[in-house]
Write a structure and sequence with these properties.
Helix 11 packs across helix 22 (591-617). Helices cover 43% and strands 17% of the residues. The chain has 923 residues and is an alpha/beta fold. The chain is built from 31 helices and 29 strands.
Length: 923
C-alpha cells in the first residue's frame, strides 16, 4: 500500500564553496586543503538541485547515480547503503552515496514505496564531446524525468494486475462541488467525474490511487484535507495556479487537438481544472515527454455502485484486512491470463455498475462464452501469450522503451488479428452478442502492416535497451550488414584486401599492417618499394614512409576501409538507432488502434475468465433489473467456498435471502444466533453477490434476482483506530452513523452486532433505534445481525422486518452448528458452549454456567434482585466440582481406585465396583 509521501528537507545549499587542492577526484571534489571554491561539477549539481527541490536527485556520474548532502543521508537510510563523505562544503564534509545505473530500478522501487520523489539527472553528452569544448568542461547533464508514486511506467515498479492511478482533485472558489480526474500513465486510461465532497472518501477507496495532486489551498479544508490525509496515498500539493480552469481548458484542447471540450461531455469547471492539472503534472514529471493518454471518459455520478472505504475493507474485495491479495474476492475469482485482463477485472470489481443495460451486455457475453467452452479454451490459450500492450506503448512514447517493447507491440497486434479472426465465426455456433462483436471489431483494428514490419525488422533475441544494439535482423536495413561485417570481421576483410594487393602486384611478401601512428598501411621490402613508386602502381599506392629495410604505402581504398572499420561500430549502432526511432514513430502514429486492440484483448480476457469461473464452480446468471428485489436462492460465499474446496473440507452450506422494498414484504432480516454459527459469513456473502452481479459476473447460487443497488454499506467487525484516537466502539458508531445518514431505498446494508461495544442497555437501545431508523427512514434492504434477542420483538411492530436465525443443535452439552438460516429467533446465544469450543479452562466454563443460571433465575423472578451473596467468589485454582466434593468422600474413592487392579477384575467385579463408587459419590 502506498503511504503519504515524505517530503525530505531541501538540502541547505548556500553559495559556499567546495574545498579543493590540486587535482580533483570524484567529479571535482577534493578531500581537503587549499582555498575553498566551487568546482564546475559541483556548481552544476547545485544549480540542478535548486531547480528540483522537495525530492531526491539521482545525479549521473559514469556508471553510478550519486546523491549528495541531505539527499545522501535520506537515501542511505531508506536503501540501507553505505554513506560516505568526500570533499567539503562550508567547512563540512559532504555526505555522499550512490547506486549502480544497471540496478537503479530496484533502488527506485524501494524509494518510491517509501514515499519519496526522485529526479533522475542523466548525462546528455559523452565525455569525449565535453573534452572537445575544453579539457576542463563538465559533461552536460539534465533532469530527464521526475519519478513519483503516480507516474511510474517500468514493469519493475508496477504490479501487472493493478492500475496505478494518478488522481487530481480540484474545487472552484465559491462552489462546494469537486472535480476529480484520474489517469494511469502506464496504460493511458483517463477519466473525470463530478463529485460531492461527501463522496470523496468512497471514490478514493475505489480508485486506490498511487498519488493525489491537489491545490495547496484545498489541503487545509477541515473535511477534504482530512479525507486526503486519511486515505494513505502519496499527497502532492501544488500551487493553486496550476488548477486554473481557463488554463486547463486550453491545455486540454491543445493536447487532444479539439476545438471544444463538449465532445467529452458536459464537464464542470472543477472537472476541467482537475483534468488539465493532470496533463500539466504529467508533462512536468516526464519533462515534456507525454505518454499516450486517451481522451477523457466522463464518469457521471451514479454510474457505479458507491462503496465506502470501510465497506471495501470489511468485504475484502481487492485485499484482505491485512492488506494481502490472497484471500480476497479478487484473488478467488481472478482467472484472467494477462496483465491487462487482471487490471480490468480489478477495475470492474472495484466499480460495480448501476446501468442494467450495460450489466446485461456483460452477462450476455459471459453466458455466450459459457456455452462455447471449446472456443473459450482456445481464446484463453491465445490470450495467455498476450503482452502488455498498454504499458509497452507508454514506455515507448515517453522515451523509456526498448526493443522488447517493440516486440511486445508486434506480438500483441498479431494476437489481436488472430483473436478477431477466431471470433468471426458462423455455424455451428450461435451469433455472438453485441459486446463480443464489439470486442472483435476493436481487435480487428490491429495494423497488420505495422506488425509485419516489426516482425521483419526485429531479431528473435532482443536486448533490453536499444543502446546495446543487435536488435535489427540481418538483411532488414541496407548498409547495416556491411557495417556489422566491418565491425565484426575486420581481420578477415584486411586479410582479403592484402591477398588481392599481393596478387595484383605479384609481391607475395606484401603485408597490410597497423600501428598507432600510421594506422593501417601497406608494407613491402625495400627492393620492391621502387616498383610501387613507378607506374602503373603509383596511381594506386601512395607513399607514406621509408625505413631502412622497408617502405610503407597506403591506398585510397585502404584509407576508406580504415575509416569504415574505426567507425563501423558507431555507424552500425547509429543505423539501429535510426531504425528504432522510425519504428517508435510508427507505433506512436498507430497508438489509437493499438490502445483499442489492447482494450479489446483485456475485455475478452475478463469475459472468458468469468465464464471459466462460472462453469468450474457452478455459478448462475443473475437476473438484474431496476426493481427493489433481493432474492437469492441457495447462495454461497465465493471466498469461503473456494477455501473449503482447497482444504478438501465439507461443502459450503447454501442459504436463501429474500429482501424486498415492496409493501407487505420484509426489507430487513434480523439475524440471530450464536457466534461461530455463520452470521457474518451469511451477511457478507449476500453483499458480495450484489457486487459480483453488478460487475457483470455470474454468482454462486441456484438463482439470483437483484434489483440495482446504488450504495452498498457494510459494518462487520471493528477494531481500535488508535491513530485517530478512536476506540472500537467509536469506530463502530462512526461507521454506523455513515450508514444511517447516507443509505436510501436502493441501498443494501449489512450490519453486525451494533451496540455490543458498550453497556448492555446502552447497546440495546442504540441497536433498537438503528433498526427502527433503517426500516422507517432509510427504508433500505438490510441484514442486521445481533445478539440482543430483545430486538426480535420489533417484528411485530415493523411491517418490513422479519426474524431469521442460524440453526444449531445441542447434543450432550455440545453445540453443533448447522450453518443454516431458518425463520424465527434464537432461543439463546450458546456463548458458554462456544467458549468451551474455544478452549477456555473447564473451571471457567463451569463457573460461567453457574453465573448464567443465577442470572436467568433472577430474570424469571422479577421481584428478586441478585445479591453478591448469590454469586460466591470464584476460587481460581479450584474446579467447581472439587468445591462441592467432601474431602473424606474423595479420599475414600481414591483409596478404592488405588487398590483396584483393572486387569484382574472380572466383568461382574468391575460392574460391582462401579455401583459402589456411584453409591459412595451420592452419599
Amino acid at each position: 500500500m502506498h503511504r503519504q509521501a515524505r517530503q525530505p528537507r531541501a538540502p541547505l545549499l548556500g553559495s559556499g564553496a567546495i574545498r579543493q587542492s590540486g587535482s580533483t577526484t570524484n567529479g571535482g571534489m577534493s578531500d581537503s586543503g587549499g582555498e575553498e571554491r566551487v568546482t564546475p561539477m559541483m556548481a552544476q549539481y547545485l544549480e540542478i538541485k535548486r531547480a528540483h527541490p522537495g525530492g531526491l536527485l539521482f545525479y549521473r556520474m559514469g556508471d553510478f547515480y550519486e546523491l549528495f548532502f541531505d539527499d545522501a543521508v535520506v537515501a542511505s537510510r531508506a536503501l540501507g547503503i553505505a554513506l560516505t563523505r568526500r570533499g567539503r562544503h562550508l567547512g563540512k564534509d559532504i555526505p555522499m552515496c550512490g547506486v549502480p545505473v544497471h540496478a537503479a530500478g530496484d533502488y527506485l522501487q524501494r524509494l518510491i514505496r517509501a514515499g519519496h520523489r526522485v529526479a533522475v539527472c542523466e548525462q546528455t553528452e559523452a565525455p569525449d564531446e565535453a573534452r572537445k569544448r575544453s579539457g576542463k568542461s563538465v559533461v552536460r547533464r539534465a533532469v530527464t524525468r521526475i519519478v513519483t508514486p503516480g507516474t511510474l511506467t517500468e514493469d519493475s515498479l508496477l504490479d501487472a494486475n493493478r492500475h496505478n492511478y494518478l488522481v487530481a482533485l480540484a474545487r472552484i472558489r465559491g462552489d462546494d462541488a469537486l472535480g476529480l480526474a484520474w489517469v494511469d500513465i502506464s496504460t493511458g486510461d483517463f477519466a473525470v467525474t463530478p463529485l460531492a465532497a461527501g463522496d470523496l472518501a468512497a471514490e478514493l477507496a475505489r480508485l486506490d490511487p498511487g498519488e493525489v495532486i491537489y491545490p495547496d489551498t484545498l489541503g487545509g479544508d477541515t473535511g477534504t484535507g482530512r479525507v486526503l490525509r486519511e486515505h494513505g496515498a502519496a499527497l502532492t500539493p501544488l500551487p493553486a495556479s496550476r488548477f486554473d480552469s481557463a488554463m486547463a481548458e486550453r491545455r486540454l484542447k491543445e493536447h487532444f487537438e479539439v476545438a471544444a471540450l463538449e465532445v467529452y461531455g458536459d464537464l464542470s469547471r472543477a472537472e476541467v481544472a482537475a483534468a488539465g492539472a493532470l496533463i500539466d503534472y504529467v508533462l512536468l514529471t516526464q519533462v515534456g515527454h507525454l505518454p499516450v493518454i486517451r481522451p477523457p471518459h466522463r464518469s457521471a455520478g451514479g454510474d457505479t455502485m458507491l462503496i465506502d472505504a470501510a465497506t471495501r475493507a470489511n468485504l475484502e474485495l481487492l485485499r484482505t484486512t491485512s492488506g494481502e491479495r490472497r484471500g480476497s474476492l479478487l484473488d478467488t475469482i481472478d482467472f484472467t491470463v494477462s496483465g491487462a485482463g487482471g487490471r480490468l477485472l480489478a477495475a470492474w470489481l472495484a466499480s460495480p455498475l448501476t446501468s442494467v443495460a450495460t450489466i446485461d451486455a456483460r452477462l450476455d457475453a459471459v453466458a455466450w462464452l459459457v456455452r462455447h467452452g471449446e472456443l473459450r479454451a482456445d481464446l484463453r490459450r491465445t490470450l495467455s501469450g498476450a503482452p502488455d500492450l498498454d504499458r509497452a506503448l507508454a514506455r515507448l512514447t515517453v522515451g523509456r522503451g526498448g526493443p522488447r517493447d517493440l516486440a511486445a507491440i508486434c506480438r500483441g497486434l498479431e494476437l489481436a488479428t488472430q483473436t478477431a479472426a477466431r471470433l468471426a465465426i458462423g455455424e455451428p455456433l450461435d451469433a455472438p452478442p453485441e459486446f463480443i462483436a464489439t470486442v472483435a471489431r476493436d481487435a480487428a483494428r490491429s495494423d497488420d502492416g505495422l506488425a509485419t514490419r516489426l516482425a521483419a525488422t526485429l531479431t528473435d533475441e532482443l536486448p533490453l535497451n536499444a543502446r546495446d544494439g543487435g536488435f535489427v535482423r540481418s538483411g532488414a536495413v541496407a548498409g547495416l550488414d556491411e557495417q556489422r561485417r566491418l565491425r565484426d570481421e575486420s581481420r578477415s576483410v584486411i586479410a582479403g584486401l592484402q591477398a588481392r594487393y599481393a596478387a595484383d602486384t605479384g609481391m607475395k611478401s606484401l603485408k597490410v599492417r597497423h600501428n598507432n601512428i600510421l594506422g593501417y598501411h601497406i608494407e613491402v621490402a625495400q627492393q620492391y618499394g621502387s616498383v610501387l613508386l613507378a607506374q602503373p602502381f603509383a596511381a594506386t599506392f601512395i607513399h607514406r614512409q621509408t625505413m631502412a629495410n622497408a617502405m610503407r604505402f597506403t591506398t585510397t581504398e585502404l584509407a576508406d576501409l580504415e575509416s569504415h572499420i574505426s567507425l563501423a561500430a558507431s555507424r552500425a549502432l547509429a543505423l539501429e538507432f535510426e531504425v528504432f526511432d522510425g519504428l517508435v514513430a510508427e507505433v506512436t502514429a498507430a497508438a489509437g488502434d493499438i490502445a483499442a486492440c489492447s482494450a479489446a484483448l483485456a475485455r475478452l480476457d475478463v469475459l472468458a475468465a468469468l465464464a471459466e469461473l462460472a462453469e468450474r464452480d457452478g455459478y448462475v446468471r443473475p437476473d438484474v433489473d431496476d426493481g427493489v428485489a433481493f432474492a437469492i436462492v441457495k447462495g454461497r460465499h465465493p471466498v469461503v467456498e473456494a477455501a473449503l474446496a482447497r482444504r478438501g473440507e465439507a461443502a459450503f452450506v447454501a442459504n436463501d435471502c429474500r429482501l424486498s422494498g415492496q409493501a407487505g414484504m420484509a426489507r430487513i432480516w434480523l439475524v440471530t444466533g450464536p457466534n461461530m454459527a455463520g452470521k457474518s459469513t451469511f451477511l457478507r456473502q449476500n453483499a458480495l453477490l450484489a457486487v459480483m452481479a453488478q460487475m457483470g459476473s455470474f454468482v454462486p447460487a441456484e438463482k439470483a434476482h437483484i434489483g440495482i443497488v446504488d450504495r452498498l454499506f457494510s459494518r462487520v467487525g471493528a477494531a481500535d483506530d488508535l491513530a485517530r484516537g478512536r476506540s472500537t466502539f467509536m469506530v463502530e458508531m462512526v461507521e454506523t452513523a455513515a450508514i444511517l445518514n447516507q443509505s436510501g431505498p436502493r441501498s443494501l446494508v449489512i450490519l453486525d452486532e451494533i451496540g455490543r461495544g458498550t453497556a448492555t442497555f446502552d447497546g440495546l437501545s442504540i441497536a433498537w433505534a438503528a433498526v427502527e431508523h433503517l426500516s422507517e427512514v432509510n427504508r433500505c434492504r438490510a441484514l442486521f445481525a445481533t445478539h440482543f434477542h430483545e430486538l426480535t420483538a420489533l417484528s411485530s411492530r415493523l411491517d418490513g422486518l422479519a426474524n431469521v436465525t442460524m440453526q444449531v443443535r445441542e447434543w450432550h452439552g455440545e453445540v453443533i452448528f448447522l450453518h443454516e438460516v431458518v425463520p424465527g429467533a434464537a432461543d439463546r446465544s450458546y456463548g458458554i458452549q462456544v467458549a468451551r469450543l474455544a478452549g477456555l479452562p473447564a473451571a471457567v466454563v463451569e463457573r460461567a454456567a453457574e453465573v448464567l443460571h443465577l442470572l436467568e433465575k433472577s430474570e424469571q423472578a422479577s421481584e428478586r434482585k441478585i445479591l453478591i451473596d448469590d454469586l460466591p467468589l470464584f476460587a481460581a485454582l479450584q474446579a467447581p466440582a472439587e468445591r462441592a466434593r467432601p474431602t473424606t468422600r474423595a479420599s475414600e474413592i481414591e483409596r478404592m481406585l488405588d487398590a483396584t487392579l483393572p486387569d484382574e477384575l472380572t466383568p461382574r467385579e468391575a460392574l460391582d465396583l462401579i455401583y459402589r463408587l456411584k453409591a459412595l459419590w451420592a452419599s
